[in-house]
Specification:
Layout: H1 13-24, H2 28-35, H3 39-48, E1 58-62, H4 68-73, E2 80-85, H5 88-100, E3 107-111, E4 124-130, H6 139-149, E5 150-161, H7 169-189, H8 194-204, H9 209-218, E6 221-228, E7 233-239
Parallel strand pairs: 1-2, 1-4, 2-3, 4-5
Antiparallel strand pairs: 5-7, 6-7
Helix pairs in contact: 6-9, 7-8
Length: about 240
């Protein structure tokens, strides 16, 4: 059974996720940095380094949100980054950020469904995602569409939350995610469901080797998983 942000509603997971991110978009960046104690910035930096030797010129950032991963990807000196997201609220925040930084010529943000990308086959040199794939309604379908729009030889780099497996971090993270994180999220974002959904979605996500198997099933090769910060998040890399 799918984990949903709003359990009292009959809308699809996709629609509920879009609504949730629209609701919290104004506070999303603040909450991200506070709840991760700023380490999410380091995670993104490490993930992007997996593309350093590839020098991709056209990059697709899926579930781009407010554009932080796209902005980090500029360190690769691409010609263009296109970010897509199902939340117009998140995109609006991202466009303000990109305009403030004077990056409109490098980053373009579009409303779009990550599981039904409106791009041609074999179009992008690299596809990147940060903290987005666990929100997909159909994970395999979303990964398959990433594979379709990626050029042969291109790489996908995915940064996603995972579950620590070793004590004492396993117990500490479980307490933090269930008892503390939802309370802080509720206080700042005013959306009671958003930060209850987050730990629930992490718990339900097939991380580690399970996720690598799904990547392999849709066609990606040379797949690797790099756990970060005692396994709180992981970087996944695959090649078409």
């Amino acid at each position: 059974m799918a984990v949903l942000p709003y359990k009292d509603k009959q809308d699809s997971k996709k629609d509920q996720v879009a609504e949730m991110f629209n609701n919290i978009s104004g506070k999303y960046d603040l909450l991200n940095h506070v709840l991760s104690m700023g380490i999410d910035i380091t995670w993104r930096r490490k993930a992007i380094k997996y593309l350093k030797d590839d020098q991709p010129k056209l990059i697709l950032d899926i579930a781009t949100g407010t554009g932080d991963f796209a902005i980090e990807a500029l360190t690769l000196n691409p010609d263009k980054i296109i970010g897509v997201d199902i939340s117009e609220g998140m995109l609006a925040e991202g466009r303000k950020k990109i305009k403030k930084k004077g990056l409109e010529d490098k980053i373009e943000l579009q409303l779009g469904d990550s599981e039904g990308l409106l791009f041609e086959d074999n179009m992008f040199d690299a596809v990147i995602v940060s903290f987005g794939v666990r929100n997909f309604e159909n994970l395999e379908k979303g990964l398959s569409d990433m594979y379709r729009v990626l050029k042969p030889g291109g790489k996908v780099v995915i940064l996603e939350f995972s579950k620590p497996t070793k004590a004492p971090m396993k117990q500490a993270y479980a307490f933090y995610s269930k008892a503390i994180l939802p309370q802080i999220g509720k206080l700042v974002s005013k959306d009671n469901s958003a930060y209850t959904y987050l730990p629930e979605s992490v718990q339900a996500f097939p991380d580690g080797m399970d996720f690598l198997r799904i990547m392999n099933n849709v066609g990606f090769t040379s797949n690797l998983c790099k756990p970060l910060t005692f396994g709180i998040s992981s970087i996944y890399v695959g090649t078409k």
